[in-house]
Amino acid sequence: MTPEVFVDVLNNALYMVILMVSIIILPSLAVGLVVSIFQAATSINEQTLSFLPRLIVTLLALMYGGHWMTTTLMDFTIGLYLSIPTVVS
């Protein structure tokens, strides 16, 4: 295995991780920002008001994006397994 192939596989894996995490985290960050602005405007400092909407949005993102994430991860893994003979030889 040459260093170029290793760097290419690592680059693709890191891109996959960033893509998977961003699908889950970005909606949660957006809802957290909206809730924080609402809390600052109304001076309500309730912890469940900030936690519960983010939890619900994160679970919804997992529900709606789970199939796509699983399919993408399986395609990536199958591609890695199929590239083993070309990488080793």
UniProtKB/TrEMBL annotation:
Main localization (coarse): membrane
Record field: transmembrane: 13-39, 51-70
Membrane association type: Multi-pass membrane protein
Top-level taxon: Bacteria
Annotated GO CC locations: bacterial-type flagellum basal body; plasma membrane
Record's keyword terms, sorted: Bacterial flagellum, Cell membrane, Cell projection, Cilium, Flagellum, Membrane, Transmembrane, Transmembrane helix
Annotated compartments: Cell membrane; Bacterial flagellum basal body
Annotated Pfam families: Bac_export_3 (PF01313)
Protein transport in keyword set: no
BP term (GO), one: protein secretion
Family: Belongs to the FliQ/MopD/SpaQ family.
Function: Role in flagellar biosynthesis.
Protein name: Flagellar biosynthetic protein FliQ
Gene name of the encoded protein: fliQ
